[in-house]
Design a protein that fits this description.
Elements (H helix, E strand, L loop, with lengths): L10 E5 L2 H11 L4 H14 L4 H4 L4 H6 L1 H7 L13 E5 L6 E2 L3 H10 L12 H15 L11 E6 L5 E9 L3 E5 L8 H8 L5 H7 L5 E5 L1 E7 L1 H13 L10 H12 L5 E8 L4 E3 L18 E3 L10 H6 L3 E3 L2 H7 L3 H8 L5 E9 L2 E10 L13 H31 L4 H17 L12 E14 L2 H25 L7 H17 L8 H19 L4 H12 L10 H31 L3 E7 L1 E8 L11 H25 L9 E7 L4 E6 L4 E5 L1 H12 L17 E6 L2 H16 L3 E9 L10 E7 L13 H8 L1
Parallel strand pairs: 1-7, 18-21
Antiparallel strand pairs: 2-3, 2-8, 4-5, 5-8, 6-7, 9-10, 9-14, 10-11, 12-13, 13-14, 15-17, 15-18, 15-19, 16-17, 19-20, 21-23, 22-23
Protein name: GAF domain-containing protein
Pfam family, one: GAF
InterPro entries: GAF, GAF-like_dom_sf
Length: 789
């Protein structure tokens, strides 16, 4: 018996029938003859086995005297109920059990020889403390509710897992202390009750084998499969995302237990009311299948595939049941749906709507490989399950909407994380006042006394390059058309063809001159209205037909024009912008560690960025001007890295493009205000507007007294207005020259006067195009100070 009982227990367990024997002795002395004779007969059978009264230590005695034990406990195990009740003799919480009812024996036979009956989710810790709680309850008379529901999970003959609730009867047991038992005070008991997880404390108060558990218990099981399966389903569905069910198998096992169908499979689809489509829930990809969609991502609800079969489901919100798919194919006009299911081996199925507030959320799919497994009768069991599915899908939809809103906010607005707290605070004020005041006026989001940093990497001569590629494509298209016309056979349209050739040659000649604003549109309209109709309505030679086919294949679907050269240019622009933007975004994450600041960037013909740093953006962190200097050095170094990235890209670009880099220095603090109408930040105030004017015009400016642009390829231009700014940036440049990032030569010049702005100066320095340079190392302002000092 020792091997059947856990080693770690406060009990020395002794199986005994002494309480029953004592009751038989009392009955034997009674005046009721048939009861007295029965009791005397039992006592006579027990007499040769004193251990039945004193205690059984050898389990073989139980095995060898099963008939006697059955007679002793006959009053507790009525023969008439043996095929109905699930009962046995046991010791609470332990695996030792015997004297099973016939129904219990059948359940264990169906489970198989290898099945080991263990209490669900019951570990050694719980076992030890539950035994201790038995002592507290029965010996110390403590009112402790320690009996949580216990279950055995036992498979039936079909392999379906069934769940049985366990009930214990301990009326025939007694608990007594040994000399090793520790006498407990109320303070000790209170300490134990407050420290359930401290197993060592419990073991110190209840040492191993310090108490005797003598007698026997009765375990009764009842089939709680449906209730337990629904509870398991609810628990799985209510788990947060991080611990959500990771396998369809878990869900299917639960449904199989409820429906008692071994081959049952489960699927699910979401209903999109805006587009009236069934869609596969992406969140459950590879976790929840769909038998209606199968490999499709979405299907229109009005698709002929569903036919009229789903009218009840969609309009009356009633389950759609097919108990025999093969018969459905023969009798239903919607054979396509039946064949679709049969191809997947489905012979019976139920498609049930998941509803909330009269709105369809989705459809749960139950399918089986056997006909009539699923039918209109057992489909009613879904009524027990659908409420939990409804809550889960509603939560899924809500979560999806929140994520969509987050994506919109991240991708389509300019609310940067550094300033999000202020928007959140104002939104919270609105939320708290929404029920008190009808007309809440939103406060303006303003950050005062912030320092701006502006920089850009611009595609050099992008407009000229774009115009040139347009001209090349137009010339090639006109030349292709002229070749087609030259190969046309003489016919009645000869005069018209000659006129069109003349017009095409004239248009081609115009392209030798600078491109006008409407030239492209004019040529496009002429070709579509005058030339294409002729080509489509005129038959030519086999050679000409090949030329025409090649011509039409070369047209862009959207514009109807040649797009080869422009495509190379556009692709090159896109590659450059994407790469430079990714470098800037990645480096920006490091910059936020210097001091939290507002950051935004734009892709135009290049990449621009704005930074604003100051105490008002991060009021919980003390601000020092050192952070501004550090950020300026970071900006200069980052532009150097972006220049190098472009240099590495140049040879692989489909169209060669150069870039120019520029930094605008502005030392006076300013205010930025969120423009509600434009949903973006802008500088605030008349004086601060000067900064915006310079930003918009500076990159197209020339060196004062010349026609030379202040920006030049592979060089960084730093525009400033004050002597201290010049001194500061010359230090940065000197340091980066020392690090072999910038070339030794430095150009300094004045910038031509802009409208309303004069006195600007600039420094220009070239980046060393050596990919081996260690620019990836982060250089801080403190590094610079340490080196220079």
């Amino acid at each position: 018996m020792e091997r059947l009982l856990p080693h770690e227990s406060p009990f020395e367990t002794i199986i005994s029938f002494h309480k029953l024997i004592e009751s038989f002795e009392e009955i034997a002395l009674s005046d009721v003859d048939y009861r007295s004779n029965y009791a005397k007969a039992i006592l006579k059978e027990v007499e040769p086995f004193p251990e039945f009264r004193t205690g059984i230590h050898d389990y073989n005695i139980i095995k060898n005297n099963e008939g006697l034990i059955k007679n002793i406990v006959a009053d507790l195990f009525p023969t008439a109920l043996t095929n109905n009740e699930i009962k046995a003799i046991t010791i609470p919480f332990q695996n030792l059990s015997f004297n099973y009812t016939e129904r219990f024996k059948k359940i264990l036979r169906n489970a198989g020889d290898e099945f080991d009956m263990e209490i669900r989710d019951f570990d050694d810790h719980q076992f030890y403390i539950n035994n201790c709680c038995l002592i507290l309850a029965y010996y110390y008379n403590q009112n402790i509710d320690f009996n949580k529901p216990f279950f055995y999970d036992i498979p039936d003959e079909q392999g379906i897992e069934k769940h049985y609730r366990i009930l214990y009867n301990a009326d025939f047991m007694e608990i007594t202390p040994t000399e090793r038992a520790v006498e407990l005070t109320q303070d000790d008991i209170d300490q134990l009750i407050d420290n359930y997880n401290d197993i060592e404390l419990w073991k110190s108060k209840f040492p191993k084998r310090s108490w005797i558990l003598k007698g026997f218990g009765i375990v009764s099981l009842f089939d709680a499969t449906t209730e337990s399966a629904i509870s398991n389903l609810k628990s799985n569905l209510l788990k947060p995302d991080s611990t959500r069910v990771t396998s369809t198998d878990i869900i299917e096992d639960i449904f199989r237990s409820i429906f008692k169908i071994p081959s049952l499979k489960v699927g699910f689809i979401i209903y999109n009311p805006e587009e009236e489509k069934f869609i596969r829930p992406i969140k459950f990809d590879n976790q929840m299948q769909s038998f209606l969609l199968n490999t499709d991502e979405e299907v229109d609800c009005k698709n002929a595939f569903f036919g009229c079969s789903f009218e009840n489901l969609l309009h009356n919100k009633e389950p759609f049941v097919i108990s025999n798919v093969e018969k459905f194919i023969e009798e239903s006009p919607n054979k396509k749906l039946g064949e679709h299911l049969l191809k997947q081996g489905i012979k019976s199925c139920v498609f049930a709507p998941v509803m909330k507030d009269e709105q369809l959320l989705g459809v749960v799919e139950l399918v089986s490989e056997h006909p009539r497994d699923l039918n209109s009768v057992n489909a009613t069991k879904l009524e027990l399950i659908l409420p939990y599915l409804t809550d889960t899908i509603d939560r899924y939809n809500t979560d999806m909407q929140h994520q969509i809103e987050a994506i919109i906010q991240r991708e389509y607005t300019t609310i940067h994380p550094s300033v999000y707290w202020k928007f959140r605070k104002e939104s919270q004020n609105y939320f708290q006042n929404i029920n008190h005041t009808k007309d809440y006026i939103f406060k303006e989001i303003v950050f005062k006394n912030v320092y701006p940093l502006y920089g850009q990497i611009d595609i050099k001569g992008s407009s000229e390059h774009r115009n040139e590629t347009v001209k090349i494509d137009l010339k090639n298209q006109l030349t292709a058309l002229l070749e087609i016309f030259d190969n046309q056979k003489p016919n009645t349209n000869l005069v018209l063809l000659e006129q069109r050739k003349f017009e095409l040659e004239s248009l081609r000649s115009e392209l030798e001159f600078p491109l006008k604003a409407d030239t492209e549109q004019h040529i496009q309209r002429y070709i579509e209205e005058e030339i294409h109709p002729i080509l489509k309505n005129t038959k030519g030679s086999a050679k000409n037909e090949k030329l025409e086919a090649l011509y039409f294949e070369s047209l862009d679907e959207k514009t109807g024009l040649f797009y080869q050269e422009r495509k190379k240019f556009d692709n090159a622009m896109s590659i450059i912008n994407k790469k430079l933007a990714s470098v800037l975004d990645k480096k920006q994450l490091d910059a936020q560690q210097i001091y939290p600041h507002y950051y935004e960037r734009f892709k135009t013909d290049g990449v621009e960025h704005n930074l604003y740093i100051g105490a008002s953006i991060s009021p919980t962190k003390p601000f020092d001007v050192m952070y501004l200097h550090n950020l300026r050095l970071w900006q200069l170094q980052t532009l150097c890295e972006m220049e190098l990235e472009h240099h590495q890209l140049k040879e692989s670009l489909p169209y060669e493009l150069d870039v120019t880099s520029l930094i605008l220095v502005f030392s006076a603090p300013l205010s930025i205000r969120f423009r509600m109408d434009e949903k973006r930040f802008d500088v605030d105030g008349t004086y601060n507007a000067r900064y915006e004017v310079v930003k918009k015009r500076i990159d197209k400016s020339n060196i004062k007294g010349t026609k030379e642009r202040i920006t030049e390829k592979e060089k960084i231009t730093i525009v400033y207005s004050q002597n201290n700014e010049e001194t500061e940036y010359l230090k940065y440049i000197k340091y980066l020259q020392h690090k072999k990032i910038l070339e030794p030569a430095i150009e300094q010049f004045e910038v031509e006067d802009l409208q309303g702005v004069s006195g600007l100066r600039a420094i220009r320095v070239k980046v060393i195009n050596n990919t081996a340079n260690p620019t990836a190392k982060k250089i801080t302002y403190q590094d610079l100070l340490d080196e220079l000092n």
